[in-house]
Amino acid sequence: METLVAAASLIAVQLSGMVVMFGLMRAAPHERCTRYWAASAALAGIGVLLIMLNNGAYRPAILVLGNNFLICGVVLQWCGIRVFFRKTKMIAGWAIGGAFFLLFGLLVLQGAGVMQRSVLSSATILLLLTMSGIELWRSQPRTGGTARTIALGGCVLLCASYTFRLGALLSGSSSGLSTSTALPGLAMLYIIPTFSSLLLWSGLLLLYFERIVGTHQHQATHDELTGLLNRRALTIDGERALSLAQRLHAPLTVAFIDIDHFKDINDSFGHEAGDRVLVEVANIFRQTCRNVDLVGRYGGEEFCFVFPGIDRDGAVAVASRLVQTVRMHDFRLGRPVTASIGLAVTLPEAAQRDWHALLREADAQLYKAKHAGRNRYCIDQPRGEVLSLPQQMAS
Q: Do 287 and 161 share a structural domain?
């Protein structure tokens, strides 16, 4: 009776995992990992059920079906983990599954005893679980990640359970057999696997939800085309950066950058070429700016920057470098692409300005840069004069 209850609990966990993953698969049919995981839980549950019903007897058809369903379920779980982490090659898992099918079939045809069959199935499951654990360990950062820790913990416990079971079988102990009613056997075969499977499925489910939340959060705060911050996120982070700079009595620079004659690029080369220019310009900005700088697409061909800790001299250096880098880049259009920049700087010793005032000043300086001939920068000055890129540098 104890064996029946323990086995039923393990089957219930597997089938529950199947139901949850099947629901996710229906909700997001484009996600291949949930398909693998739903099929994995279903096959593993059916496999455990057939093995339990067989109860160690020599019934070739049930033996082959039950054990191969179980192995196939573990292979599909490994495949789902690889798909989740954007990996496509799965030949190793299926090769192991195919080898098990052939070897187990030979053992059944030769009339091998339950001990030999259990050794083969336990060793194969242990190998596949180890492969799943390695995928979880390598594919995520080693620090942080509650979901990864839960899934990896469940995988490690399952590996430990099958390691002890394999050791018991190789030593000739009957506690490693599916017919065992002793407490150590029940623990190795059903109790620990039930708890471990629950941890593993919970961890995989949390990993999936973490990705969904992360994806939606990224889509809500980043521009789809360039991958830079969008206007809303830039405003929120920019106001936060300005508030921090004022508390620390540190300088901060805000800049507007506009691609010159961008409408002509779209009209002459098409919108696809225009999109390519925006993406390449965004890549230039990422490579030129520091990690602490905020870079976003403000709208159309206009970008906005926030440079914490940058005073006027630093702003001039950064602006000059950005203008020249864009001008020197080969956009494969047969003509140069240039940019104009307007900068506003807030200094600790100057009167404090809010975020919107800095934006208005940077926008006004951008207008001056365009009016002065484009392909240059303009920056606000203490007495109101304009500092512009010399014409010999702009040419």
A: no
Does residue 111 form part of some domain? Answer: yes
Q: Which domain holds residue 103?
A: 2-220
The residue to which tokens 């006004």 are assigned: 364
Q: 387 pairs with which residues across the strands?
A: 379
Choosing from 210, 301, 361, 385, which is the catalytic residue? 301
| Tokens found for residue 360 | 């208005």
C-beta separation of 343 from 365 below 8 A = yes
Rounded CA separation 381/344 (Å): 9
Count how many domains the chain has.
2
What is the pTM (predicted TM-score) of this model? 0.71
Asked if 23 and 42 sit in the same domain, the reply is yes
Is residue 321 domain-shared with residue 372, that is, in the same domain?
yes
Asked if residues 263 and 255 have their Cβ atoms less than 8 Å apart, the reply is: no
pLDDT at site 180: 52
> Is residue 305 over pLDDT 80?
yes
Instruction: Please tell me the distance from the alpha carbon of residue 377 to that of residue 395, in angstroms, as a whole number.
Output: 13
Return the pLDDT at 4: 59
Q: Edge-to-edge strand order for the sheet containing 387-388?
A: 294-299, 302-308, 252-259, 339-346, 377-379, 387-388
Same domain, 255 and 295: yes
CATH number, domain of 278, equals 3.30.70.270
Is residue 236 situated within a structural domain?
Answer: yes
d(CA 204, CA 14): 13
Paired with 388 in beta bridges are 378
pLDDT band at 10 (very low <50, low <70, confident <90, very high): low
Place of tokens 């291949």: 32
Within-domain flag for 226: no
CA distance 37 to 30: 14
Picking from 186, 201, 220, the residue at the C-terminal end of a domain is: 220
Q: Residues 6 or more apart from 63 whose CB is under 8 A from it?
A: 54, 104, 108, 117
Interval 214-261: pLDDT, tens? 888 888 999 999 999 999 999 999 999 999 999 999 999 999 999 999
Chain centre to alpha carbon of residue 201:
18
Q: Where are the beta strands (DSSP E) in 157-275?
A: 252-259
Q: What percent of the chain has pLDDT over 90?
A: 54
Amino acid code (one letter) for 77? Q
Domain closes at, from 194, 220, 246: 220
301 catalytic per annotation? yes
324 lies in the same domain as 343: yes
Q: Give the pair of three-digit tokens for residue 48.
A: 């455990």
